[in-house]
Automatic annotation (TrEMBL):
Protein name: Nodulation protein L
SMART domains reported for this sequence: Mac (SM01266)
GO molecular function terms attached to this record: acetyltransferase activity; O-acyltransferase activity
Keywords: Acyltransferase, Nodulation, Repeat, Transferase
Organism (species): Pigmentiphaga litoralis
Family stated for the protein in its record: Belongs to the transferase hexapeptide repeat family.
Amino acid sequence: MSHRTEKQKMLAGELYIADCPELAADNRRVSEWMARYNASIAVPPAQRLALLKEMLGAVGNHVNIRPPFHCDYGYNIRVGDGVFMNFNCIILDVVQVTIGDNTQIGPGVQILTADHPRDPALRAQMLEFGRPIVIGKNVWIGGGALIMPGVTIGDDALIGAGSVVTKDVPAGATAMGNPARIRG
């Protein structure tokens, strides 16, 4: 039986310890990249797009992510064509985050795949896990919203500013509040 690394466990959505040498090296690499990316606010969008393609798992055409931008690893983030993310967005990408074409994300939005065991004994062992997030095409997420682990937001949905999205949002729906609820 082969021994799985903490990174392999993380990518599989299993319990893992984030404070291991392999993930620490990945984190240093993305931290160095974020320092360069976040200093690029005055450069043309095409140059920032090239920087995004260095670190993110997949980046479509005409993507504009305004610095500052922060993420855990970068390689688990897949962004479609025409995606716009405003200032101060955070993606904790311990597992895959997919953002569909033409989605617009307001300032200060947090997309959080990282989760922690509810059992205090497991938390005391510094264990965590991730649940993937999928954001469909042509979604609008208002400023300051929190997208929690495991959520799927359907195409053409709208998420109100400041909402905390804890459950899936169907295509075309409007969800807002804390916790976010579907509105008519």
